[in-house]
Write a structure and sequence with these properties.
alpha+beta, 3-stranded antiparallel beta sheet, homodimer, DNA-binding, 213 residues, globular
Chain lengths: 213, 213
DNA sequence: GCAACTGGTTGACTCAGGTCAAGTCGCATC
DNA sequence: GATGCGACTTGACCTGAGTCAACCAGTTGC
């Protein structure tokens, strides 16, 4: 699409080292970002320190919403990260000029909403095993779509991140992975897993939370 | 806003009796609705019958997203319901003509996304008591904003609906309400509750999941 | 009035997942 | 190659919420 080319011109590249915060919840959203390299964790915090990871962003994903006054979640880098930064002012001007872009943004927001709702379904109804299994399959599929298609699926995030994403404790994530390995549907390797027949398990158990993240 | 008046002309009023389904997940979204009277439950189902209630819609809320091909959740009436029905074709045409409306839709979608993310935070990290307490306070606040401001807060939905909304079982909801009554922060009355010092409880316990639903 | 239902409550018991506390493994750094 | 550290695993135990079942209160229909 023509407009997207134009949009590129507005971007400036920025880089973040592992663990650095890109932006924080409630902060004024003076820019939004397109992720070009690496993985980003999006999350909300409670005053007492409890955390909910909302999503893991991959290259191609957007961080932050145009038209949102303030960020409503925090984002930080998992490993080294490269981003395209769009200043809010530039972006607003650009968007106003193009109904096509408007429409893309709406469709993007709808997709995000749908993903959040699928996640609600999973958090509200899933057992630990279902949660972990579905997380792994979805993650693999997303990486697959980016053709980061290695046999062994990398898991750059920490166990704690997965736990906070799934509403579990890190010990439970660890134990559940061990259980899945026992069942011979995965193999745990350093910094990743190797999936063998996990989706079959999901089908058999009768769940299908719409494999997409 | 001028455009909103115009929009009214496109609407046709429709009515649903208690329990009736307005639309179902995956169904072609040939129309979207504005809720004018009553309460609607929005939910997703799993093949094995488990259900996640995503939200309870109140008058003024929109059901269904313009630009979404298909509904990505189901909706049915809790009690008698009156809706403004907008056909997809009419609406699309109307929207294209007005960037103002586009912008409103984007902002609406962003708000919905934010609400869904707050709900993720609650489902992932809350105890049964927190979930129920926060649900009651949020519900009261929403009704308050509609100036349906009675001292006793009506709860037109069933315990099962609340349970499916909060990722609990109906017995747990029932017990938790009983416990809150014991603590003298609510009083249970037929088809509703009476809140007395519940928000204080929330502040004391240190949680503030952004009181809004 | 009484039967049949539906929605809600309550009790007794179970168990998945949380908690706490040792370990282990990998990997920097000196 | 010792040492320290952060990420992860594993075990023993505990508990909050789920399960199963009985019971109660309104409502509807005959």
């Amino acid at each position: 699409m023509f407009e997207l080319r134009e949009l590129q011109k507005l971007a400036s590249q920025v880089y973040f080292r592992s663990g650095k915060t890109i932006f924080s919840e409630r902060e004024l959203a003076d820019a939004v970002f397109g992720l070009s390299q690496g993985v980003v964790r999006l999350y909300k915090l409670l005053p007492d320190g409890r955390r909910q990871v909302l999503a893991f962003a991959l290259p191609g994903d957007f961080l932050g919403m145009p038209f949102a006054e303030r960020h409503n979640f925090s984002a930080d880098a998992i490993g080294e990260v490269a981003l395209c930064r769009f200043s809010r002012a530039d972006l607003a001007e650009f968007i106003q000029s193009s109904p096509n872009i408007m429409r893309l943004i709406i469709e993007f927001a709808i997709r995000e909403l749908d993903k959040a709702q699928d996640q609600l379904l999973l958090l509200g109804n899933g057992s630990a095993e279902e949660k972990v299994a579905i997380f792994l399959v979805n993650w693999r599929n997303r990486l697959g779509r980016l053709s980061v298609f290695s046999e062994t699926v990398p898991l750059p995030m920490r166990r704690q991140d997965i736990a906070d994403f799934l509403g579990l404790k890190l010990e439970t994530v660890s134990r559940t992975l061990a259980k899945l390995e026992q069942k011979n549907v995965i193999r745990i390797v350093p910094k990743g897993v190797f999936l063998t027949g996990l989706e079959q398990t999901l089908l058999v158990t009768g769940r299908s939370y719409q494999p997409q993240m």
